[in-house]
Amino acid sequence: VDTLHVHLGWGLRAVDAPLVRSTFARLAEAARRVPALRAVNVGGGLGARLQERDRPLPLETWVEALADHLAPLGVEIACEPGTFLVADAGLLVAQVAVTWDKNGTHWAGLDAGHALNVYAAHYGLPLEILHAARPLEPPSRRWSVAGNINESGDVFAQDRPLPPLAEGDLVALYPTGAYGASMASDHCLRGQPRELLEEMDGRVVVAS
Ligand SMILES: Cc1ncc(COP(=O)(O)O)c(C=O)c1O
């Protein structure tokens, strides 16, 4: 054995700081029993901020835990950040295909579903939703937002305060830079959207 690896999972929050510290402490304890150790790998888990109210683990807290528990080992410290690097770099733009009222709930149905972003339907993690043309308009009432897959769980948001939505409007769901396109599928043959990539110099290229 030359490397010990731990991955705490997706979505470390500020309140998880004690868990992170105790995990790194246990990793260090195990590492001290491996004479030929070259590296410890602390996996991913940083940067999970899906909604305004979310409080992800601060980078400084994570670094402090590494410095306190793993740096004294004197071996390489590897990490595998995913979300932290790319989540905020992407958003999914979808069109409101239909609106309807049912049992007192206002629904908007999009031309995108959980096949294109799995967060809400698969993990119960709703994304932020903005009216793409009027992102700063204050909410006027609560909307539930459904996807275009004929499965009851295909709901992006429930009772979300949003500005008026009409058929044809574009909405932006974000952040979708992590596990968005990479986990998208052609489930129910709904098709895949085009991916547009904005280069550092502002040029927009079609990525797929
Ligand atoms: C082993 C491992 N390392 C790193 C990551 C990346 O995690 P994150 O996106 O939370 O940084 C994952 C994601 O599931 C993982 O399974």
Query: Helices and strands: which structural class?
Result: alpha/beta
H/E series: EHEHEHEEHEEEEEE
| DSSP helical segment count | 4
Weakly predicted, low-confidence segments:
none
What's the number of extended β-strand segments? 11
Largest sheet: 6 strands, mixed
End-to-end distance: 41 Å
- Bound ligand species: pyridoxal-5'-phosphate
Q: What is the residue-averaged pLDDT?
A: 96
Strand content: 25-35%
Question: Helix share of residues?
Answer: 10-25%
**What is the approximate shape?**
elongated
Radius of gyration: 21 Å
- Strand arrangement within the widest β-sheet reads 6-9-4-5-7-8
Question: What is the secondary structure topology, with strand pairs?
Answer:
Blueprint: E1 3-5, H1 17-31, E2 39-41, H2 59-70, E3 76-78, H3 83-86, E4 92-102, E5 105-110, H4 119-123, E6 128-131, E7 141-146, E8 155-162, E9 170-174, E10 196-198, E11 204-206
Parallel strand pairs: 1-2, 2-3, 5-7
Antiparallel strand pairs: 4-5, 4-9, 6-9, 7-8, 10-11
The structure holds pyridoxal-5'-phosphate (PLP).
